[in-house]
Amino acid sequence: MFSVNLKGKVALVTGAGRGIGKAIAQGFADCGARVAVNDIDSTSATLTTGILSGEANAYVADVRDSAAVEKMIDKVVADFGRLDILVNNAGVEPRASILEMSDADWHDAVSTNLDAAFYTSRSAGRIMRVRGEGAIINISSIAGHNIPIAMRSGYVASKAGLIGFTKECAREFAAYGIRVNAVCPGVIETEMTTHLRHNEAQMKKWLEDIPQGRLGIPEDVVGLVLFLSSDASRYLTGQAINIDGGKVML
């Protein structure tokens, strides 16, 4: 796996109890960072923390709640003394047609995938501004690049909004030495895609559209996140980078 030296850095990863977030947390730990593992589920957060090398703490908080986010980030800084990297990974993907989607599912998608990134970036940005440096990485999706996914209107809208927010955040935060970028995965083998991967017709279509001929795994996303978190990407900000085996070529 791609490796950089992040010794002395503190990274907060939201939704790190499983899937991509868990792999990212492990990547940070392997590169020497101290890791703040966030998840809404205490068991998942604790399990992830338990497998990490080096110093890591679990923070159970609902990132859809701005007050809970502020409290969490204050606690991270109190525990570790600093915050250098924020990865907004927490996400949901409710499945329903526009005509059948409930208000609750729509609001859950928008609040988890987009509002949460605003809350965490605002709180973390205030901390990073004082130090004059920092990196924020938002986990969006190829769906945010005008790649519609059937029955996922809330997901598509919120992930597109996250890309827009990333660019505006990068524009504003550049003055404080904070870089903000988005990572846009294609289909990744996580719990979120399990039910679809059992559909032979769906799998056949996916693989036909991916030049590399396979789905991604969480570890495929980690190297890009580590790069965007490191000084190797110091002149890169405001970008939304696809990582999808070549499915989307912009």
Describe this structure in words.
The chain has helices at residues 19-30, 42-51, 66-80, 103-131, 153-173, 194-197, 200-209, 218-229, and strands spanning 10-13, 34-39, 56-60, 85-88, 134-139, 178-185, 240-243. The protein is α/β, with parallel strands linked by helices. It has a single domain, classed as 3-Layer(aba) Sandwich (Rossmann fold), CATH 3.40.50.720. It has a seven-stranded parallel beta sheet, sandwiched between helices. Helix 1 (19-30) packs across helix 8, helix 3 (66-80) packs parallel to helix 4 (103-131) and helix 4 packs parallel to helix 5. The longest helix is centred in the middle third of the chain and has 29 residues, at 103-131. It is globular and about 50 Å long.
Number of strands: 7
Spatial extent as radius of gyration = 17 Å
CATH topology: Rossmann fold
Gross morphology: globular
What is the annotated CATH architecture?
A: 3-Layer(aba) Sandwich
**What is the highest CATH level, the class?**
Alpha Beta
Report the β-strand fraction as a percent range: 5-15%
Mean pLDDT: 94
Major beta sheet, strand line-up: 3-2-1-4-5-6-7
Domain count: the total is 1
The topology string of helices and strands comes to EHEHEHEHEHEHHHE
Reported for the largest beta sheet, the result is: 7 strands, parallel
Assign the structural class, choosing from mainly alpha, mainly beta, alpha/beta, alpha+beta, or little secondary structure.
Answer: alpha/beta
Q: Any idea what the CATH superfamily is called?
A: NAD(P)-binding Rossmann-like Domain
Amino- and carboxy-terminal Cα gap: 26 Å
Low-confidence stretches: none
Number of helices: 8
> What percent of the residues sit in helical stretches (DSSP H or I)?
40-55%
